[in-house]
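User: Could you check the structure of this?
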Amino acid sequence: MNLKLAEFLVGLTGVFCGSSLVFRTKHSEYVLRKFLRSEVAGTVIFLLSGTWFLGHVLTLGESDFGEYKYFFFVFFLTIILITLVKIRDFLSVRGGAILALLTANELLKAAYMKPQGSRLILVTFIYAAIVVGMIFGGWPYKGRDFVDFLFSHPTRPCLFGLLTTCCGILTLTTLFW
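Assistant: Sure, the predicted structure tokens are below.
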């Protein structure tokens, strides 16, 4: 992936997610609340992120404990399967956090060693996503707390959506730098 594609995808995601909060607040609240505890979405997202992570484990080099990569593969596969069977609560939040962290890795690779002016906006949003992914991955109930906070006041979803849309537009403008 190159830097311009990464900027385009991050900007488009920001505009889409932000505008969905601005224009369809009640529907967005319903979708977010259902997503948090959805077993189907949780299973799909967690399997997708687990498969992606196991792919990274299989490509470990010698300097990254590559001689133990099959042991790590079996160990993490067991962890993923046990999590899918035993820890069903907020599975979509956990899977989404893992997916966010793996995506951040790919986006940071796209921005590596590029001119500073063009990548600064993108990298700032990626690091913010990493922090959020780490928080939601470690404490998935914080996802519920955030949704409760967001929709507890009628203007918060619109303001947060406007902020997210503006960040997406700002990222899209970097395509022309």
